[in-house]
Design brief:
Elements (H helix, E strand, L loop, with lengths): L20 H8 L5 E3 L2 H12 L8 E3 H7 L6 H7 L10 H8 L21 H25 L6 H16 L1 E2 L2 H26 L7 H12 L8 H10 L3 H13 L5 H9 L5 E2 L3 E2 L10 E2 L4 E5 L5 E5 L8 E3 L4 E2 L13 E3 L2 E3 L4 E3 L5 E3 H7 L13
Parallel strand pairs: 1-2
Antiparallel strand pairs: 3-4, 5-6, 7-8, 7-9, 9-10, 11-12, 13-14
Helix pairs in contact: 5-6, 8-11, 8-12, 10-11
């Protein structure tokens, strides 16, 4: 931490040091503005450590500020973009993996699951240096962004975002656990039926099921993806083959994934926090959602249903609170050639907007030299 332009100090809580009274008083004084990059992290950790709330109204978040300006959302990228004299230390990621993530217990490390300061004093000192350097970078970012003030309405919106995420969403832990137990029992029932029907050791294996369909029913299958199986069901007449394909679809359903995501994210007070990411969609400013968050979608067939965010596909339309909107999906497709037009760099087939109602591919926009729609933004000077 640092006060204004003063020297950067570090408090080694892990090694028994205590937060100085001066810092405690500043953290809880409503007349003193606290600034951090991704301030929600600092607020949550300090509130737990000090046992007192850290109201968002007393804080400023340089990440939120940078996002409203269309700048990168990660500290390293932002520092490079702004060409700061101070940059993040590259070894930081390695140190975070060593100290901040559980480790695999082995004979050589004595079976421990966490690396503590005493396990590598040299690395711990490097970690502290890395932490202090981040403060230098964050302070320089703040000084740069002061030339482009964050609009008051966006500050209020960020405060609202923080209050929503601080409160979290209440989840019925018992319901989640029982739903998973029911699914496990149901899946076992389906698997046993498939074993009895096909005689296969593992009817869930695509290779085994393809072989059975070919050998027993003369059905050649290249893929057992959901879409392919649904098409086959319209053609196959044999009752055993049809039932085997129906079981394949039933066993491949992913509705339980939302409960698994809830179980991973739920806190001790049975609430899930951090489901909303302020200004997650760069330039448009729309919120982004974390894994497990239910999203209302309209499928190509016109069905309206909820899906966990990670299961939304690019053919689904997503309800944004006002209208059904298209999107690019969340599928990794490897490395592709990209093009740049009107400030946007993306793959040629990437969908861009010319107005709030008209969209084309980026390639078409570039070929026709069409200006891209930025939404209803507020310019600053």
């Amino acid at each position: 931490y640092a006060f204004d332009d003063g020297p950067v100090e570090i408090i080694d809580l892990a090694c028994g040091e205590q937060i100085p009274e001066e810092v405690r008083e500043a953290l809880t004084n409503p007349t003193i503005l606290k600034t951090a990059y991704r301030a929600q992290f600092e607020r949550a950790c300090l509130a737990r450590h000090l046992g007192t709330p850290m109201p968002a109204e007393q804080w400023s978040c340089t990440q939120a500020h940078s996002l409203t300006l269309g700048l990168p959302g990660n500290l390293e990228g932002l520092a490079k973009c702004l060409k700061l004299s101070q940059q993040k230390l590259q070894e930081g990621k390695t140190l975070i993996r060593y100290f901040s993530i559980p480790c695999r217990p082995t004979k050589s490390n004595g079976g421990r699951t966490r690396n503590l300061p005493e396990h590598d004093r040299e690395k711990w000192e490097q970690f502290k240096t890395y932490c202090k350097q981040d403060v230098e970078v964050e302070r320089e970012i703040r000084q740069k962004l002061q030339n482009y003030p964050m609009p008051e309405k966006e500050i209020r919106l960020w405060h609202l975002d923080q209050r929503i995420n601080d409160c979290g969403v209440r989840v019925d832990r018992q319901l989640v656990e029982k739903a998973m137990e029911c699914d496990e029992a149901y899946q076992e029932k389906l698997l046993q039926e498939a074993r009895d029907l096909t005689g296969l050791e593992n009817p869930n294996s695509p290779a085994q099921l393809k072989g059975w369909l070919t050998e027993k029913h003369g059905i050649q299958v290249d893929s057992l993806a959901k879409e392919t199986v649904e098409e086959l069901l319209e053609e196959v007449e044999g009752p055993s083959a049809r039932r085997a394909l129906e079981l394949r679809l039933l066993m491949a359903r992913t509705s339980i994934k939302k409960y698994e995501a809830m179980q991973r994210a739920i806190g001790a007070d049975e609430r899930i926090r951090g489901l909303l990411q302020y200004y997650g969609a760069n330039r448009t400013g729309r919120w982004c959602l974390a894994e497990g968050t239910p999203v209302l979608v309209k499928t190509p067939s016109g069905d309206i249903k909820e899906k966990p965010i990670q299961e939304v596909v690019d053919t689904d339309l997503v309800w944004d609170g006002i209208e059904w909107v298209s999107h690019d999906g969340v599928v990794f497709s490897g490395e592709k050639k990209v093009i740049t037009w009107d400030g946007v760099t993306a793959t040629p087939e990437h969908i861009v907007y010319l107005s709030d109602k008209e969209s084309v591919t980026l390639a078409e926009a570039k070929e026709r030299r069409l200006r891209l729609w930025r939404g209803h933004t507020q310019s600053t000077s």
